[in-house]
Amino acid sequence: MPRFAANLSMLYPEHEFLDRFAAAAADGFKAVEYLFPYAHEARLLAARLRDHGLQQVLFNGPPGDWERGERGMAALPGREDEFRRSIDSALQYAQALQCPRVHVMAGIAPAGVERAKLLATYQANLAWAAQQAASTGVTCLIEPINTRDIPGFVLNRQDEAHRIVQQVGAPNLKVQMDLYHCQIVEGDVAMKIRRYLPSGRVGHIQIAGVPERHEPDIGEMNYGYLFAVIDEVSAACGWDGWIGCEYRPSRGAAKGGTSTGLGWLTQARRRSPA
User: Fold this and answer.
1) Angle (nearest 5°) at CA 240 between 234 and 245
2) Is 80 a catalytic residue?
3) Catalytic residue among 16, 143, 186, 232
4) Is the model's pTM score more than 0.90?
5) pLDDT digits (tens, 9 = 90+) for 149-168
6) Rounded CA gap, 122 and 138, in Å?
7) pLDDT, tens digit (0-9, with 9 covering 90-100), for 172-202
8) Is the peptide bond before 211 cis (omega within 30 degrees of 0)?
9) Which domains does the chain have, with CATH numbers?
10) Are 227 and 265 in contact (CB under 8 A)?
11) Catalytic residue selected from 14, 33, 215, 246
């Protein structure tokens, strides 16, 4: 059975953030991810992980000015110094939390900048970040994101992400394969799993229902089938990553809302018990 990690930025909104670790553990999750750790001291987060027997498997590097709409800096010319400082901060947190993966966000393309320049900046920054991360045992990830959720985001397609990873050539640079984004932009998700999982370039998978980004069993995607495909392909190629549950519970912040909507996870465990 795929290994599932609770995304604490989206799941358990009925609890304060630091209380979501306990809620996730109570529902049987063994790992967590979230967008950003930087609002909290690393020691506090590490204590929550330790106290509840959880593994931190992913978080994002600093995105720039989130409140002003920035969604990463890696592809933005002229922001190289700020980007490098952000990676230094991310790697410090990764070491403190024993987190093996950091998503390096590409950013939103500035008006008037040629795409060739964005991609050149992106690759140079990714090469630098991967080199820094290698000494700490951290893998850097890049994620194609659909332009409905983040208009103008530089990276949108799986094939381009894999091409960039190949061109940079760093063994600790991989793709964060979000099946929600993949379905919206490209579709044909099962065949993309079959194509890319054996490549060794997929470092993490994320899921959500399409189109509303609710539970995986709500919407147009057959996740029961996709989990079986992931199991089949993983058994053949040895992929042993985590699947992040990055969705908005359909009951929102209602009491017990997240736990009530975990029937899909119960079914997945019954089909293929760990």
Assistant:
1) 100
2) no
3) 143
4) yes
5) 999 999 999 999 999 999 99
6) 19
7) 999 999 999 999 999 999 999 999 999 999 9
8) yes
9) 3-271 (3.20.20.150)
10) no
11) 246
